Structures are given as C-alpha cells and as structure tokens.
Amino acid sequence: MDERVLRSFATIAEMGNLTLAAVRLNMTQSALTRQIQKLEMELGVQLFERMGRKLRLSREGDVLLSRVQSVLAASRKMHDTAAKLRQGEVSILRVGACSQVIERYFPDILSKWRAINPTIEIKVEEGGGADLSRALADGDVHIAINASSFIQNDQSDSVPLGFMTLRAIGLCEFLPPGESPVELDEVGQHPLLLLNKRHVTREIFDAACRVSGLAPMIGLETSSPHTLLAIAAGGGGIAVVPSATVLRNRSLSNRAIALGGKPLDFEIAAIWPKSAPLTSLGRAFVTMLENHITDVAADRKTARDNIVVLTDRRR
Questions:
Q1: 3-class SS at 238?
Q2: Which of 38, 72, 224, 277 has the greatest CB tally within 10 Å of its CB?
Q3: Where are the domains of the chain?
C-alpha cells in the first residue's frame, strides 16, 4: 500500500477539508480526490462523509485512522533509523548468555546502557553453554557470556567475570540451613531436581557425581531453574542451580555444594572470536557488565536478602 496515499488520508482527516489538505500536501485537489477514491476501492469501505464543504471521517474511516497513523509513525522511525545507520550513528550489539545470568544482571545493565548509549541496541540471545558457543562460532552473537571452559585459546579473546557456584536449594527438613557448603553425598540422599544437559551447571554436577561414585536419584530435569525451585518448595527434592539464580522464596535453605570440602564452581567470562575483535562499544559493554557483577557480589545487603550471586576470586 502506497505510503503517500496513507499520508493523504491522515492529512484530510486532520484538516477536515480537501482543499486545505491539498495545499499542505502540495498537490491538486483532483489528484488528492483520486487517491482517496483509489484507497476506498482498495479497502472496500467509505472513509469520509461530506458535511457541506467539510469532510468528516466515516465510522470505518475513524477505526482505520489509528492504524494508518501507526503505520506512518513506524515508517518515519524506520527512515530515521536508516539515516542514522548511513551516518554511522546506530549499531546493534548481540550478546548471548544463559537465562540465569540474563535474569540476574541484564535488567540493570540494559537500563544503564540505554541511558548512556540510546542509539546502540543490545539484542540478547538465551542459551546453554554449547548453544552459546555455536552461536558465537556462527556469528549469531558478538559476545557470549559463558563458562571459561568454552574459551578456545587460539580462536577466542575473553575477559573473566567471576565464579559461579553450584547451589543446593530445598526445604530445611531436607537441607539443614548453614553458611558452610554441603557435601555432594549429603545432597544425593534426596531426590534431585536438575537442569538439563544443555547447562554447564549440569556438566559440572555430573562430573562430580562420577568422581564421587554417586548415582543421583533424579526427580526432575528441566531447562528452567525456577521450575526446579518451585518443586523444591513443594518438597519434591533438592534443586541444584547456579549461583546467579534469583531465589525469591526465603524460606528455602540455600547452600553451596562441595566435593571433599571444595565448593563446586566454574568461571564465567565474556568471550568473543579473535576473528571479530570487539569494537569500543563492545568493550564498553563488557566493562559495564564486569563492574556490575563485582558490585553485586560486594553488596552485603543483597546477600542478606538471600539472593545468590557470583563470587569474584580476584578481589
């Protein structure tokens, strides 16, 4: 549908007069009349009713006007964006991360980013460790926030962001509260609620089970940590989730999982291909995320509120 015809319709509706609308649009009245007649034929409805020398929107025209205005506004925005792209003022940064990191850190980061860089759009893609690694290799994301085990030293550059621990979350009757880590074999005495094998957390947990000889009783496998927490709250077992997971139910016990006294954890990093070096804006995003994670880890109040966070061994 011709955008010029839609603009003519909106202008007549605004001015209520064909002659005045023609003057504003810099066209003859007869040409404007033909445009509206053509549009009415195309839509199969009458758009205006004549009231003496004035035109008034018909019922159908009144309904369609808001749609037309939305189309014209979207068109203007598209043209403005295209102009800024031509001038190098607009760009897109595609970032991949797991759902827990996205939920815990990205809302604040994206808000800060938009305030500082309103013309640089961040597009976020969610995935597990292997998914993110493939997305990075395929060029679907510029940066992957992923386990450091996915860094390919000869092909990747990276910035370490901290360590994520495996947490056991469950009712106090299954998991006595405490600040010290709980041993894996203690956790394994109960049905376990686990993330599926797309997640690095699950890879670490399965590897620890192999080392300890534990054959876990798996009560549920899912891609959603909040599903695990919901089942744990109902007494269905102990959930095993990464420490970036937001824990809203403060009645649940929450402890790090250890093997032989050593907490099970893994480092995460911002990773990108050496073949596609980060722009200054990409590096600015990584720095902003790194600082935000450090601030959250140092926030004592957050820890007291029972929200588990990343730890930073470099501090």
A1: strand
A2: 72
A3: 3-86, 92-315
Give me the CATH code for the 3-86 domain, please.
1.10.10.10
Residue 265 corresponds to which tokens in the numbers above? 């954890």
User: Both tokens of residue 184?
Assistant: 């894996």
Residues contacting residue 230 through CB under 8 Å, at least 6 positions apart: none
What is the pTM (predicted TM-score) of this model? 0.65
Q: What confidence tens digit (pLDDT) does each residue in 245-283 have?
A: 888 888 999 999 999 999 999 999 999 999 888 888 899
- pLDDT score for 83: 67
pLDDT at 107: 93
Tell me the C-alpha distance between 43 and 41, whole Å.
6
Name the CATH code of domain 92-315 (choices 3.30.540.10, 3.90.550.10, 3.40.190.290, 1.10.1040.10).
3.40.190.290
Beta strand ranges found along 45-135 (DSSP E):
48-51, 54-57, 91-97, 120-126
Q: Which residues contact 51 (CB under 8 A, 6 or more apart)?
A: none
Tokens describing residue 238: 């102990």
The stretch 199-227 carries a mean pLDDT of 93
